[in-house]
Amino acid sequence: MDYEAVLEEVAAFVRPLVGRGQVARYIPALACVDANAFGIAVADVDGGVYGVGDWKTPFSVQSISKAFSLALVLAEGGDMIWERVGTEPSGNPFNSLVQLEYENGIPRNPFINAGALVVTDRLQTLTGDAGAATLELMRAESGNRDVGFDLEVAASEGENGDRNAALAHFMASYGNLENDVPTVLDHYFRQCSIEMNCRDLALAGGFLARHGLRADGTRLLPRREAKQVNAVMLTCGTYDAAGDFAYRVGLPGKSGVGGGIVAVIPGRCTLCVWSPALDSRGNSVAGVAALDHFTTLTGWSVF
């Protein structure tokens, strides 16, 4: 596969879409990001990485980090997390309070905000520092020790995080948090503030393409649990547009409101695309189109 040629064709195809949509203005620190940026990278299972456009420009990973914290919880604590969070698509916005009340404080899946807070809470219990554990995994798998938190973004989220605080307090009232709410929120906001580029994220997600094997050949997850993460990414990874994403792209994917999307082709490669302008459901307009065109050109999907 001539990855660079394919990526150049993808970039040319989506160029008219770059800038369509809106950047995430409800997080003030993200509101000034250039809506016309676009980058895409692919990392194969052997560690080769290729990219075009703004693929080496750092951006806020936001909810993409949730796939990594979930993998760590499964690696450290096994599948007991599924007693506290479900695996079903929500059909509601990622920060919705609606379902929690009639489902007794159990979030639908680990990628909506409520579910990610439960995962962060469990990771805090298992490691003593959930934010640092997530950062360390992403540093190690990307091979970039300079990856770090963007503390301005974390502070901005904290100052505008009333909805997340409400979700956390509501779940705590049902006994579905082990740690105090401020601690969980702090680690959650720091985790979401991690700053990486397309190259680093494509490499970092490689263990999901290698069925749980890390970049150094050691095993992070059993094959069964790597399959679980990929499955939930496919059905729940792009907010309440997951069905449309599965229909168009046909790959496990996790998006973030920073404009990034990581997608996995098990046994082949991991992709990361970034374009900050979002659609009404929080996914990158050009990013989804780029992944759709990549699968069209290569014929690769999980189906």
Itemize the secondary structure elements and their pairings.
Blueprint: H1 3-14, E1 39-44, E2 49-53, E3 59-60, H2 65-77, H3 98-102, H4 113-127, H5 130-142, E4 148-149, H6 151-159, H7 162-173, H8 181-192, E5 194-196, H9 198-204, H10 206-209, H11 223-236, H12 242-248, E6 253-255, E7 260-265, E8 269-274, H13 285-298
Antiparallel strand pairs: 1-2, 1-8, 3-5, 4-5, 6-7, 7-8
Walk me through what this model shows:
With 303 residues, the chain is of the alpha+beta class. It is 45% helix and 11% strand. The chain contains 13 helices and eight strands. Strand 7 and strand 8 form a beta hairpin. Helix 7 crosses helix 8. The protein is globular, with a radius of gyration of 17 Å.
Helix fraction bin: 40-55%
Q: How many helical stretches?
A: 13
Helix and strand content put the structural class at: alpha+beta
* Rg calc: 17 Å
**What kind of sheet is the major sheet?**
5 strands, antiparallel
Shape: globular
Secondary-structure element pattern, one letter each: HEEEHHHHEHHHEHHHHEEEH
**Multimerization status:** single chain
CA-to-CA gap between the ends?
A: 19 Å
What percent strand? 5-15%
Total count of strands: 8
Can you tell me the residue ranges where pLDDT is under 50 for at least 5 consecutive residues?
none
Mean pLDDT: 96
**Major β-sheet strand ordering:** 2-1-8-7-6
